[in-house]
């Protein structure tokens, strides 16, 4: 029971504490070591004395002191100054930092791990580790790679930050554009891992969705006027509004057209739509705004037949011009099928299949199977579903595809 309480606390408070430790020390490894030592001491101390009144403050103080010990031992020639020296003089259970200070540390950490000197896989892995609190094993599952590979990627990324002396800061205006794109991409990848997990027992991870949305709000708040940042926040909110209806009681995927729309959060939809309207009003269109506009059209449809598929197909065509990719093309083909009929979408998907761009991607044969099912071509649909089943990894999606095959008799 105590171990679970500590784990929950670490999940809730750990990202804030770790961001502060990295800010004070400038060293990812020392900060993580100090944080882990504080967690171990918490288990031992709280077992004897019970939970303190402010566990987060207790953990912060112990972690700071442990960090100071590590710095003295490993860098004896460096004096402890500034924020860390002041922090060590605080009481046993200090009041937590003010919200602006805490969020500023997190924003600095976001831009540090999203520096262009790091490749995108390293950026995402480091963000999941430091900003979202995932373990190396969980990150490895998300990347579909061995845990040792992920561990090496994290080590190399932290070494690169140290060797290149990447500053722990929000970049100034002339460098913001190039860094902002990487930061937004990383936030969205974190959200997607929460919204449709690549592996694991549950298909949806609300904690990752909430963390990505929190980071998105933070960027919008502290960097006002960034239309694509607002577009990303709107996109995540509009997707998250549908989250309660996306799985059934057994955790099996429920496709959009079969979802109980009464479960969709109208409050979150209203917020996402308002954020999107502000972004579009800035006159600087981009991929996140286009995707948010598509999500808004889905969210506004009270019934599946009310969906404005011609407009969605047009938005996907615009998205292909802004951010061409095989996956966007697959979604555009599916939208075209809904707007003009299954045959039009199938022709496009067959061209995609011949190109080999989506080889091994289970959603291509799954989308083909769905259109074949709508056309009544049962044998072909069954064969396509089975191709998708050979490729699918997540149990929630596997159960859905198996159900579709069963429905075909």
- Total helical segments: 19
Global outline: globular
Share of helix among residues? over 70%
What is the chains' assembly state?
single chain
Q: Please, what is the average pLDDT?
A: 85
What structural class results from the helix and strand content? mainly alpha
Strand proportion, as a percent range, falls in under 5%
Distance between the termini: 47 Å
Largest sheet: none
- Please give the radius of gyration in angstroms: 24 Å
Q: How many distinct beta strands? A: 0
Task: List unreliable stretches of 5+ residues.
Answer: 77-102
Order of helices and strands: HHHHHHHHHHHHHHHHHHH
Brief sketch in words of this structure:
With 409 residues, this protein is mostly helical. Helices cover 71% and strands 0% of the residues.
Layout of helices and strands:
Elements: H1 2-25, H2 28-49, H3 55-74, H4 82-88, H5 99-113, H6 120-130, H7 136-143, H8 147-163, H9 173-195, H10 206-222, H11 227-240, H12 266-280, H13 287-300, H14 309-322, H15 326-340, H16 342-355, H17 363-374, H18 378-391, H19 395-407
């Amino acid at each position: 029971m105590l171990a679970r309480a500590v784990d929950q606390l670490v999940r809730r408070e750990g990202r804030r504490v770790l961001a502060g430790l990295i800010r004070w020390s400038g060293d990812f490894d020392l900060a993580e070591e100090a944080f882990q030592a504080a967690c171990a001491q918490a288990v031992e101390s709280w077992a004897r004395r019970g939970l303190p009144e402010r566990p987060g403050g207790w953990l912060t103080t112990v972690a700071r002191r442990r960090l100071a010990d590590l710095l003295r031992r490993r860098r004896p020639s460096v004096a402890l100054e500034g924020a860390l020296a002041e922090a060590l003089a605080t009481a046993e259970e200090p009041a937590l930092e003010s919200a602006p200070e805490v969020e500023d540390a997190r924003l600095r950490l976001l831009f540090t791990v999203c520096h262009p000197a790091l490749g995108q896989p390293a950026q995402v892995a480091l963000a999941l580790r430091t900003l979202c609190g995932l373990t190396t094993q969980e990150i490895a599952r998300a990347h579909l790679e061995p845990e040792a590979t992920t561990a090496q990627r994290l080590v190399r990324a932290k070494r690169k930050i140290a060797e290149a002396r990447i500053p722990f800061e929000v970049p100034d205006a002339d460098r913001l554009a190039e860094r902002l794109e990487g930061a937004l991409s990383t936030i969205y990848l974190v959200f997607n891992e929460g919204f449709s997990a690549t592996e694991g027992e549950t298909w949806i991870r609300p904690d990752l969705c909430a963390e990505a949305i929190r980071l998105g709000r933070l960027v919008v708040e502290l960097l006002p006027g960034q239309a694509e940042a607002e577009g990303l926040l709107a996109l995540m909110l509009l997707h998250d509004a549908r989250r309660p209806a996306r799985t059934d009681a057994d955790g099996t995927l429920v496709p959009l057209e079969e979802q109980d729309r009464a479960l969709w959060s109208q409050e979150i939809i209203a917020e996402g739509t308002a954020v999107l309207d502000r972004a579009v009003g800035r006159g600087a269109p981009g991929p996140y705004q286009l995707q948010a506009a598509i999500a808004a059209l889905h969210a506004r449809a009270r019934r599946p037949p009310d969906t404005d598929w011609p407009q969605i197909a047009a938005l996907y065509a615009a998205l292909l011009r802004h951010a061409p990719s095989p996956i966007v093309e697959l979604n555009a083909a599916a939208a075209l099928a809904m707007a003009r009929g299954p045959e039009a979408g199938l022709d496009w998907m067959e061209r995609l299949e011949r190109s080999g761009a989506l080889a091994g991607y289970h959603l291509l044969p799954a989308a083909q199977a769905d259109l074949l099912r709508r056309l009544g071509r049962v044998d072909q649909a069954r064969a396509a579903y089975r191709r998708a089943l050979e490729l699918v990894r997540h149990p929630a999606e596997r159960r859905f595809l198996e159900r579709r095959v069963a429905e075909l008799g």
